[in-house]
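Researcher: Let's run the pair from yesterday's discussion. Sequence first, then tokens, for each.
Model: Starting with the first of the pair.
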Amino acid sequence: MAEHLYAVVPFCPHCGRRAESFRLLCERGGPAPGKAALCNQCGTWSVWDDDMDLRPPTIEELDVLDNDNEARGILREWGIDWVRRHLPPKRMQ
């Protein structure tokens, strides 16, 4: 009998985007329970739970993210990229 493997793809709990469009905080090792991920679509943080689904962060987790230099850098890069994707290009004079 053939085995069938099914992949479950988590979604952003804020905007519904699929998880492959996320940037992980501390990308070494990939997603793991308790690791934070930033959605490249809506720019909000989520946290991987024990079932490897994404959930909104708790107030305590948000406080940690607010004080984390790597998290602030990731959020800053996301903002710069968002502006580049959404603002019209400058016209040449």
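Model: Moving on to the second of the pair.
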Amino acid sequence: MNKENSTLEILFGWIGTPFVLGAWLLGSVSYIWAVVIAFKAWGIIGSFITLCLPVIGQIYWTFRNWKLYSFDDRFVLVSVGCLICTFIAFIFVYLSGKYAKQ
């Protein structure tokens, strides 16, 4: 392929990498935080369910805290930040793959 395509692939890869790392970091933090919230609210059973079903547990606890505290809750802000970073990371990974050498 030509030089422009490989340059775009590298550019989108470099731009997307911080968002991938941010999504991974914020996702890990919100997962552990969701387990702690579940333990405080429902005890060991709630934390075990959240451990076994991480995505469903994070979605549940994010919406529950959002309903109770709106965006005044730090857990909701971290979860929304994780969602935004994940969305942006997917866009740049897609664009990087689109311009990859074939």
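Researcher: Give me one sentence on the second I can quote.
Model: The first helix runs from residue 3 to 42.
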